[in-house]
Structures
1.
Amino acid sequence: MFVEEFICSITKKAPNDVFFLFESLNNLLQNSTEQVNAVTADLIDLELLHEIETIVKNGNTSVYFGKTLRDLKLMIEDEEFRKHEMFIQYKSPKKLIILSANLPLSSMQNLEFGCINEIIEIFKQHVNDLAKYFYELDNIDQCCTVMEPQNATYKDEYRRIFLDDRTWLHIEVTLEGLGTNIHLVGQSEYWNNKLQSGLLNWDHDKNIVDNIITIFDISQFPEPTSTVPGHLCSEADGAKLTTIVCGICLCTDLPEIPGLPLPLCQNSSCGVYYHRSCLYEWLVACAGNRPPAFGVATGACPTCLQPITCSKTDS
Amino acid sequence: MAAMSPSERRLQKELMSLMKEPPPGVTVDGDQASQNLTLWTVHMEGVPGTLYEGEKFVLQFKFTNKYPFDSPEVTFIGNNIPIHPHVYSNGHICLSILTDDWSPALSVQSVCLSIVSMLSSCKEKKRPPDNSFYVKTCNKNPKKTKWWYHDDSV
C-alpha cells in the first residue's frame, strides 16, 4: 500500500478537512494495519491527529494542513477577535516547533513543544502580552497614512507615516507598545525642527498617535494629494494610498531587495521617488563605477538634474 | 513564468503604457516588442504644419540588459530616413539624450517626443554637412560615435 500516495490523494481532495482525513486514515489503518504502522509512524503521529481532532472540535482554533502532513497552520482568535496565523511543524513524536507567525515571536521560535495545545497556550499568553503593541499599531494604521510597509501587518514592527510628499516619519513600536527609533525619511527642515524640539516632550503614558499630533502640532494627519507627480503608472483610482513607483525601474516592489521608493530628491518641485538601490546604482555608474567615499554617492537627480546624494544603505 | 530581470520589468511597463497612451503620431509595434523586449519598432508620422507633414518614418530601439542605466540604441530604419541636419542618411541620429545626456528618468516615450520635436523645429531639409564622410567611416552602432553636439537650435 502506498501510504504516501494515499495521503496525498486525500489531502488534495479535501486539504483542510481534518475529519475526512482522519476517517480515511482510520479506514486505511483498519484495512492493513501491519504494513501501514511502520510507514505512518514516520509520516504522521496518530496522537497528533487525535489532538488535532479535539482542537478542531472545540472550535476556538482552526487547523489547516500545509504541503505535507507535517506542516500545520493554526488560526487563533484572541480576546479582541483579531485572528492570528501561526505555522508550526511536526519534527518527531512530541516535538513540534513554531516556524513563523503574523506577529513578532521573540524567543518562542527556538523552543520545542510537546503538543499543539502547549503551543496554543503559550501563544495566547504571548498575544495577551502584546495587547498594547496591537493597540498602538491599529491606532497608527487607522489614523495615519502609512507609506511603508505596504499592507502592514502585526509582523511589521515599524511604520513610515506620510507627512508630506518629501517627508515621512519613521517609527518603530516595541513589543511593549512604546515608540522608538523615531526619525524622518527625507530632510525637511520644517518637520525636523518640530521633531527635534518635540521629542524631548514625548510622553510614554500617552499613545503614539497622540504624541505625534502634539510633536508636529497638527490637528489631523496629512494625506497624499491625488497622485505623486512624475510617474507612469498611478493606478490609485480614488484609493487612499497612491501607488508610488521608482522613477528609474518604474516598479514599486523589487523582488531582490526589500524597500519601497523613497522621497530622496530634496528639490521640492521634483517630486519623483526612487528606490535607494536604483538611485545608488545610477549615481555610482555616472561616477565611472568607482565606489564612493563613506558609501554616499553624489550626482544629479535623474529627473530634475539638481544635486542629489544617496547612501548605499538606509540609515 | 520565469522571473523577469529589472530591465525586462521596466521595458514591459513602458510598452504597456506606450500602447495604452501613445503620444500623437507615434505607434509602437506591440506584437514584435512583446516577443522580443530588447528590440522595438516605432512608427512615427511627420507633424502637420511642419516640413515633414505627411511623411512616415520608422525608428528602431535596441536595449541592453543594463537598461535604463544604459541608454537605448536608437536609429531610423526603412527606406524613408528623414532629411534633417542631425539625421545621417544611414539612420543615425545626433541627439545628446541618446548618449551623454541620457538619464534613467527618460523613457522610450520621452525619446520619441524629443525626436518629434527635433524634426518639427527644422527650418530647412538638408543632411548634416559631414554626412558622406560619416556614413562611410562610422561604426554600425551610433552609440560608439563620439558625437559633437554642435547645434542646439534645431
2.
Amino acid sequence: MADAARAQPRTPAPFRVGPALLVLGLGVLGLAGTVANLAMLLPAGGWWAAMVRPDASVPVQLLAAYSFAPRLVVSLLAGAALGLAGAILQQVLRNPIASPTTLGIESGANLALSSALIWMPGLLDFGREWVTLTGGLLAIAVVLLLSRRSGFAPLVVILAGMVAGLYCASLAALLALFESHYLAGLFLWGAGSLSLQGWEEPLFLAPRLAIAALAAALLLRPLALLGMEDAQTRSLGLSVGMVRLAALLVAVALTAFVVASVGCIGFIGLAAPALARIAGARRIGAWLLASAATGAALLWATDQMVQVAAGVYAQMIPTGAVTALFGAPLLLWIIPRLRLPPAAAGSLAVRLGQSAGRPGRRLLLLGALLLLALTVSSLLGPDPLGSNLGGWSLALPGDPSAVWTLRLPRAVAALAGGTLLAVAGCVLQRLTRNPMASPEVMGVSAGAAGGLTVAIFLIAETSRLEQTLAASLGAFLALIVLLLVARVSKANPERIILAGIAVGALLDALVSVLMASGDPRAILLFNWMTGSTYGLDTSAAGASLLAALALLALLPLVRRWLGLLPLGEDTARALGMPLGAGRLLLLMLAAVATALATLLVGPLSFVGLVAPHAARLLGLRRPLSELYGAALIGALILVTADFLGRTVAFPWQMPAGLVASMIGAPAFLWLLSRKQVLA
Amino acid sequence: MPSRRAVMLGGLSAAAAIPLSRSAAAEQVIAGLRIVSMDFGLAETLIEMGLPPVALPDPASWAQWVVEPALPPGIVNLGTDREPNLEILAALKPDLIVTTPYLDAIAPLLARFASTRTFSVYAPPVGHAFDRSVVATNQLAAALGREGAGEALIARAQACMDEARLHLAAAGLAGRPVLAVNFLDARHVRVYGAGSLFGDVLERVGLVNGWTQPSNYWGFSTVGIEALAASPASRLVYLEPIAADTLGRLEASPLWRSLPFVQAGRVIRLPAVLMFGMLPSAMRFARQLTLHLAGERDDG
C-alpha cells in the first residue's frame, strides 16, 4: 500500500511523542526566544501594551508594535503556510519527501520574482503574489510533466523537482552575477529575511492564507481518499485529476504567497510534515493540522533565535538561510526514520546489459569530438576589439598576442573537471546501485565546496594544495555522512539522495549567510561556486589534466569491483570481492575526483549525473567503456560550456560550471522523462 | 565604438598599432599613457586628473552609479570586475593597470598584461574613506608623474567641502544629524556610517552622521528599516537608484511613518553618487547635499 500519510516510524516507541508535545516543545523554545528578545527591546516591561497600544512618542514601543510583533506573526503565518503546503504536496503526490523546496516551487517563484524585478518591474504592479504564483506553477507543471510517465513515482518526481529547483537557482545566480556588486537586494530576498516595519505583510498573508487553508479544509475528504490507489479512488466516484489539481494549486498558492511576502524560507515545508508524522499524527486531518502547527512553531522558534543572535552579533542574518542551516541536519536525522512506500524502495538499479557492438568505435568518435572542441575552443574567439570577419578572430600558435595561451588552460581545466566529475558519477552510481547518484546530487560536491569555504575563511592565504586538501576532506566527510545514512536506511536510494540534498542545502545556507554578511570573500566564494575556469594558469591546468589522466589510468584496476557491485552485496561478496576495503577505496577515489573537479568547475554542473547516463544511452554499459565514455562526454560538455561561456556574451564571461548546468539540467530532465524505467 | 578603433585580422595584428579615431583612447596615446582601471573610484580620479582610462569593467553601469564626472566616449568594456576579459586586456596592451585590494585575487593575473598598481581605499581595517582617498590620489598621481594634477584635485575637493560647509551653515544646518542610506528594498537599507565616504563628507560639511553603529570597512551596515529608529537623525537622504515600488510600500509602514525625519517631511532624494568612490564622488555628494538640503526651509 503506497500510502505516504500512513507511513510509520521505524522504531515507534522512542519517537512517538505526540504531535501536540512536539508543537509544545518547539513553542517553548519560541517563547523563550520571544521573552529574551522583548526583554532586550523593552527592559521596562509593559510588553503587551507596547505591542497593542504603542505610545507614539516612545521609539522602542513603536519598534515592538510595528517591527517585532508583525515579524512574530509573519513567522507563525509563513511557517504554518509552508508546513501545510508541504503536507498537501506529500499527500497529493503520495510522496513523503515532497515539499515546496524539493519540488522546485520556491526556486521557481523566486526566479520569477528576480526576473520581474530586473526586466519587467511593471509586472509587480499587479502584485508580487501573481508573479510568484506564475513562477511556482510553471515550476511544478514542468516537474509533473516530466515525471508523468513514471506514474509520479516519488523518486522521479523529487529528482525532477530538485533539478528544476537547482536550475532556477542557477538562473537566479546568473542574474545576480550580472547585476553589479553594488546591488545586494536580490540576495537578501533569496535568503528570506523576515525583517519588517509594519503590519502590511501579515495583513497581506493572513487573508490569502485563510482562503487557501479553507480550500484545503474543503479538500480534506477527497485528499484522504487520494491516499489510496487510483483505481480504488475512482471506484468511489472521485475525479482524481480534479482533486489533485485543486490540491496542488492550493499548495503552490500557499508557497507563492510566502515567497511574495518574505522570500524563500527553505525546508520548513519538508521538515514540518515529516516531524508531525514521526510525532504520530496519522489521520489526514490531524496530520495537516499538526504540519501547519509544527511549521509555525518551527519558524517562530528559529526566527526568535536568529533575532537573539542578531542582537548579540549586531549583524543581520536572513532567517530563511538559517532554517535551511537547521533544517538540513534535521532532515538527515529524519531520513532513516521515515518509512517509504515499498513500491518505491529498492526499485532502482543501474541497468546492466550487453554493450552495443563496437564500444571502441564510439569511444574513438567521442575522443575525436573532444579534440575538435578543444581545438576550436582554444583557437577561436570573438575579436577582442573589433568586428572584422563577423567579429571572430583566429589565434594560432605562434601568434604574437598569444591569445590561445589564455584560452587553452581554461579549456584544459574544463576538460579535466568534466572527466573527473563524470568518473566520480559513474563510480558512485555503480557503488550505490543508484542511477541518480552523482557527486552533485549526493552532496559530495557541496562537501568539497564546504571544505574549501572553511579553508578560505579560517586560513588567511590558502595555497592550491591546501585548497585541494580541504576540498577533498570536505567531500570525503560528506560521503561518510551519506554512507552512514545509507547504512542506517539499508542503502535505500531515495534516502541517500535525500541525504545528499540535505548536505547540499546546508552548503547553500552557509553561503547565503556569508553572502548576506557582505564579506567580500563571500563574493569571491560565490564567484567560484558558479564554476568559473577564469584565470587558471598553465601549471594549474596541467596539474589537473595529469590528475585526470592518472585517474583514468587507475580505472582498469577497479574494473572488476565496479562490475560486481551493481549485482548486489551478496553476489559481489560471493564472487570474492573484499567489500569493505573495496568500497572504501572506491569512495576515496570518488571523493578525491570530486574535490579536484570542484576546485576547477564548481559544485553545480550536473556533469557527474548526466555523463554516465549519456554514456549508457550510447550503449556503453560495460564498466570500463561506460567509465571512459562518460569521461569523454563529461569533458566534452564542460569544454563546450567553457567555450560558450567565454564567447556568447563577450566580453562578459559566464562560468563554465553554470553554463554546463544550463545544458546539463535540461538534458537530465529530458533523460528522466524519456527513460523512466523506475516504476 | 571599439569596432571602429580596431582593425584586426585574425587577432594577429594585436601587436601593430591600433588605428585610433576620436576617442578616449586617442587622447591617451597623445598623453602617452594607456591606463586600464579596474575600479570606478580610481577611474573617476583619473578622469579628474585628465588621464581617462581606456577600459573599465562594465562602463555601461557608470551612468547608474557614478554619473559625474561624465565618462568619455569609446571606453572599452572589460566585462565584470571580478573576471575582466583577458583577451581584451591582451589586445589593448595597456601601459598601466590600476586596481584595488578588493581584486587582490586577480592582481597576479592582471600583472601579466601590464604593470599593475593597487591603491587601497576600501580595505581592512576600518578606516576613513576621505583621508584614504587623499592618500591614494597622491599615490596615483605620483605613479603617473602627475603630482600637480593630484594636488590640484585634492585642493579642489577641500575647497568643495569648505564651500558646502558655508552654504549649509548659512542655511542653519550646521551640526544637524543626517542619515545617508541606499534602499535595498522596502524593508532593508544600507546605511553609511563613520568612515564611509558619505560619513566623512557629512562631517566635513559641518553635519553630523546620524548613524553611529560600527560599520564594515566599506563603511556601511545592512539593516532592517526598524534599526533607523534608534538614530537621533532629523533628516534622511537616500540615493538613487531605488526600485519603483519601494516608496509606496514604505508609505504603508507605520514604523516608517513614525520615524522623526519622515514625520518632519525631511526625507530627501539624491541622484546617484558612487558610495565606494574617491574624491570626485565626495565632491559630488557634497554638492548634491548642498543643493537638496540648503534649498529646503529649515525650522528644526
3.
Amino acid sequence: MRARELVRLAKPRPNPSRWRKPAAALSVVAFAASVSVAAGQATSYAEASGVAHATKTGFLACEVTDTGGINDRSFNASAYQGLKVAAKAIPGLRYTFLSSTSTSDYVPNINDFIHEKCGIIVTVGFDMANATAAAAKAHPTQKFSIVDYTYTPKIKNVLALHYDTNQDAFLGGYLAAAMSKTGKVGTFGGQDIPTVTIYMDGWVAGVRYYDKVNHAHVVALGWTPAKHRNFASGSFAGKGLFTNDFTNQSLGKTDAQTLMAEGADIIFPVAGAVGLGAAAAVKQAGAGHWMEWVDTDGCVSAPQYCSIFITSVTKGIVASVAHAVVTAAKGTFQGGNYIGTLANGGVALSPFHTFASKIPVKVKSALNKIRAGIIAGKISLDPNSYPAS
Amino acid sequence: MTTAAAPPEETLSEQGAPGAAPPPWWLRALRWTAEANVAVVSFCAIVFGLFVGAILIVVTTPATLTAWGQIGSAPGHSLSVIFSTLGNAFGALFTGSIFSPSAVGHAISTGQGWAAAFTPISETMVSATPLILAGTGVAIGFSTGVFNIGGQGQLIAGAIAATYVGFGVHLPLVPHLVLVVLAGAAGGAVAGFIPGILKARTGAHEVIVTIMLNYIFLNLLNYLLVTPPLQQPGQSNAISRTVPASARLPHLFGGGLRVNVGFLVALGVAAAAAWFMKRGTLGFEFKVIGANPSAGRTAGMDASKATILVLTISGALVGLAGMSTLSGTDFFLSSGYGGNNGFNAITVALLGRNRPLGVVLGSLLFAALSTGGRYLQANTNIPLDLTQVIQAVIVFLVATPALVREIFRLREAGAGKILLFTKGWGA
C-alpha cells in the first residue's frame, strides 16, 4: 500500500532532505506571522520565530476544500473558520488547508495531508465522502471530520457532521410569512441536492404552518415539496427554482427578480454566493422588499446588505468543526455522526440585527414557542402536514 | 526539458557568409541557443514564469516581508531569509512533482519505501494523462483551423458514456475496459460531431457552438446525476454509481502508485496523432485546409467533410480524456467532474504549439506545476494560486514569441521557424 509506505517514510528520517526541515520551520513562521497579521498585531521576525519554536511540534489541523475553494463564503470558508476558532481555544494549534481545483484532487490532497501528519483532516461536502471513507479505512489511526455528510454504518475515525437545517428554516419561513405584506414569499436553490432542498422544505413548511395557525393565505413560491417523501432516507424530492450554480451572482439576481415580479416581497436564496445577486436585486427593488440569508449570519458575511436581511437561517459548521478539531487535539475525539439541531445549537436563526425593532413582539414570542415545539418534537417539520395555500 | 530538443537542421545551413566554410558545430550550437526558436522561446518562457513566481513569493510571504523591513539593519539576515524562502518554495515544487531526494535516499539505503519515493512523479503523470489526451484532440482541431473550445463538454460526454458502459455492462477486465475506452471516445465523438455537422451544413461557427455545448453537457451531467440509473442508488446527492473493478484502468506499478494504463494510452494517442498529422493522407488534407481553405478546395479536397471529421476526431480524443480520469482515478462522476481539464487542454495545445510532442511536454509541465503546487501549499503555506500564475505567465509568453525575443534579446529565427499559429477565427 502506498499509504503504509508513506507512513514508514515519514517515521525514520536518517537523511532529511535539504528542503524539508527548513520548509517546515518556515511554514510555521509564515503561519505565525499571518496569524499575528490577521489579529491586527505588529509582528517582528523574532516574535514570529519564537512562536515557531514553540509550536513546531503542535497539533496540526488540516482542511481539504471542495472545488468551491476556501473563499466560497459558504461551507468551505465556514469549516476553515472552525479551524481558526479551534486555534484560539488551544494555544499552539496550527492549521492549514489545501484547495481542490477538481474532483480528482480530493484523493491526492488527502494523501498529502496524511503525509504531513495532520492531527485531523477536515473534508467538505458529499463529493468527498468516498475519498474520505477510503482514506479513513486505509489509515485507521488518522482522524477525519467531514462536513455535510453522514455515514451508514458509522466510521470510527471519522466524525461526520450533518445539520437538520429544516428546523431553523421552519422558523425562517414562519417569520417571512409573518413579515410579508403582499402575501407571497419566494425561495430558490443553488442545486437540487439534499443539503439545499432540506432548507427549502423547512422554509415552506414554516410558511404553511403560519397560514394554518393564523388562518392566513401566504403563498411560498419557488419550491413545491413532493407529496410522498421518505424522511428517513433523507430524500427531499420536489419541484422548484434552481440556479444550478453557486457562484454566478447574475443568476441569483434574475431569480430574485422573477420571484418579485410574481409578487413575492421576501426572498430566501439557498445558493451560497449566488444569494449576493439576489440581495442586489432586492435592494434595488427598494423598500418593502426584504430577504433572509442562509448558512451564515448575513450581517457578518455580507454586511453591505444587512439593512435588507430580516434574519439568517444559519447552520453551525464553524462550531461543530471547531469542536471536532478541539476534541482531536485534546485526545477526546469520537468518530460517528453528529446531527446539528435547534436543541444542541447546531442550527439556529441568527439575531435580527436591523430588524430587531421592526418585528412585532407577538411574532417573536411565537417564534420562541415554535422553537420549543420543534425541540420537543411537537411540531411537524414535514410540509405535507399542513395544507398549501 | 525543451532545450533537449534537437536543433532544426535547416536553421543551421543558413548561417555564415556565402562561400565561407560553415562555422564549427559548437559555434552553431551557441548561436542556436541565442535564437528565438521554439525550444529556446519555450525555455525562456518557463524561466521567466518561475522568475515572476519568485517575485510573487518574495512580496507576499509574511516571513520575507518582515525580512524586507529589516534589510537596513540586518541585510545579511534578510537576504538569507528571502533566499531560503525561495529555495524552500522551489524545492517543494520539485519535491512535490518529481521526487523527493530524501525519500529516494531512504529507499536506496533501506531498500524500502520505493513507492513513496516515486509518488510525486506518479501523481504528475496521473494529472498529465487527461491533459495529453484532451490537448492532443484540441491541437488536431487547431492545426486544421478549427477552433474547438468545447473540450469541457466533450470531456464530460466521454465520461458519461464511459460511466454508463462501466456500471451497465458486466464483462471480464480486458473486454470491459476496451468497451469503456471505446465508449469514452464515442461519447466525445458525438459531442464533437454536433458542431462539425452544424458548421458544414449551416455554417454555424464552431467557436460559438462548442462553447454553448459546454453548458449543455455540463447541465446534462447535472441532470443525469440526480436521475436513475446514473445516480448512485440509496443516495439523494448528485453523485453517480461507482464503476466496478473490471472498468478501472490497471495501475502500472504496485505500491499504491496511482499512475495507470491511461498514461500509456495517452502517450500512444499522442504518437498516433503525430504520425497521422505528419504522414497520413487525411492529416495532410486537414493541414492544407487549415492553412489555406481555398487552396484545399482547388486541389479537390472536401472542406466540409474535413470539418466534420476533424471535430469528431478531436472530440473523440477529448472524450478519452474524460474516460481516463473516470476509469483511472475517480471511478464515479459528480457535478465538478473533470475540473478545468477541458479548458486547460486548450492551454497545453497552445503551449505545445499544436504538435503532439509539444502537447505531451506541455502537459507534463502543467501537471508538474499543479502537483508541485499542491505540495508547496501543504508544506509551506504558499497558496496554490501561485503556481497558476506561473502557468499563466508561461502560456502568455509562449503565445507571444515576439515579447520573449524582446525580454531575452534573442535573435530572430529563420523564416518559418516560429510562427504565431493563432491566425484568428478563420472561416
